[in-house]
């Protein structure tokens, strides 16, 4: 038999088509392996989702499959194959060597402004493609931005993504890793649109440019405290309805005044290029829910 296995023995939709080469990571419901396709000899990522857990577990997988099947873009990870067995649902993705978190770690959290712009441009391209199709990613973070050896960045892990029929459709507020979560969602809002992703974009841009996370809170209260300490404690005049929010009132935040963003990045050199970057961050993380720009309006788009 030839080096490439016969199609009569293997093919799409069959576990036998793929060889596991090692574990890449593990979560509550899924384990990701590095693998190789016997059909193409290409490397792949095998995301095995266990189906024996409680009822809610497969929902994120079904959502990811249904969305990714219709998302074809150079800056969105490609779903090659789907394999369904009694105990497991395996999603076969293109393989990328690294992610933005690993990239930042490997370069000592010191990225060149050229690379910051290149990665941000690619992130905004992929996100704009999603938003134009009324899809929110809802879980943007460096670990979900995959990077290959050619410097191509691709959005991945659409398990929390949702298609939105109207901008104010109600969703769960239990989305987005804490550090990249906007304050309205932290305060329990379930009515949100594309700004949830744009807040994450601003936090990621700051992290790439400065080498440190913007709001590394360990609890919801601490996360909100970090946000308000930099951006000012919201008032009714700037955020309609905030004074009636029970969770906001229960925390008794001090009345902080907005601080210049440069104060949050003391080692940042204030050249024109860096000033523009901080301006882009500030635009993305506006406190008012309706304020953040769209992907296409972003300076790096």
Number of domains: 2
Widest β-sheet, arrangement of strands: 1-2-3-5-4
* Largest β-sheet summary: 5 strands, antiparallel
According to DSSP, the number of beta strands is 10
Summarize model confidence as the mean pLDDT: 83
InterPro entries: CDK, Kinase-like_dom_sf, Prot_kinase_dom, Protein_kinase_ATP_BS, Ser/Thr_kinase_AS
Catalytic activity: L-threonyl-[protein] + ATP = O-phospho-L-threonyl-[protein] + ADP + H(+); L-seryl-[protein] + ATP = O-phospho-L-seryl-[protein] + ADP + H(+)
GO molecular function, one term: cyclin-dependent protein serine/threonine kinase activity
Protein name: Cyclin dependent kinase 18
Account of the 3D structure:
The chain is an alpha+beta fold. It has two domains: 15-94, 2-Layer Sandwich (Phosphorylase Kinase, domain 1), CATH 3.30.200; 98-297, Transferase(Phosphotransferase) domain 1 (Transferase(Phosphotransferase), domain 1, Orthogonal Bundle), CATH 1.10.510. Helices cover 30% and strands 17% of the residues. It has helices at residues 57-68, 100-106, 113-132, 183-186, 195-210, 220-231, 246-251, 272-284, and strands at residues 18-26, 30-37, 43-50, 79-84, 88-94, 98-99, 135-136, 145-147, 153-155, 162-163. A five-stranded antiparallel β-sheet has the order 1-2-3-5-4. It has a three-stranded antiparallel β-sheet with strand order 6-8-9. Strands 7-10 form a two-stranded antiparallel ribbon. Helix 3 runs antiparallel to helix 5 (195-210) and helix 5 runs antiparallel to helix 8 (272-284). The longest helix has 20 residues, at 113-132. The chain starts with 17 loop residues before the first strand and ends in a 17-residue tail after the last helix. Mean pLDDT is 83; it is low at 165-175. ATP binds at residue 47. Keywords: ATP-binding, Kinase, Nucleotide-binding, Serine/threonine-protein kinase, Transferase. Belongs to the protein kinase superfamily. CMGC Ser/Thr protein kinase family. MAP kinase subfamily. Belongs to the protein kinase superfamily. CMGC Ser/Thr protein kinase family. CDC2/CDKX subfamily. It comes from Denticeps clupeoides (denticle herring). Residues 18-301 form the Protein kinase domain.
